[in-house]
Amino acid sequence: MKTSLSLICLFLSIITHAQNITGAWENLSTSENGDQLKTVLVFVDGYQVSTTFHAVTGEFVETHGGSWTLQGDVVTEKIEFDTDNPERVGTEISYKVKFADDGLELYDSKKKFTRIDDGQPGALEGAWLMSGRMVDGEAQTRDTSGPRKTMKILSGTRFQWIAYNTETKEFMGTGGGTYSTLNGDYTENIEFFSRDNSRVGMSLKFNYELIDGQWHHKGFSSKGDPINEIWSLRD
Question: Which CATH number fits domain 126-233: 3.40.50.620, 2.40.128.490, 3.10.50.40, 3.90.45.10?
Answer without folding.
Answer: 2.40.128.490
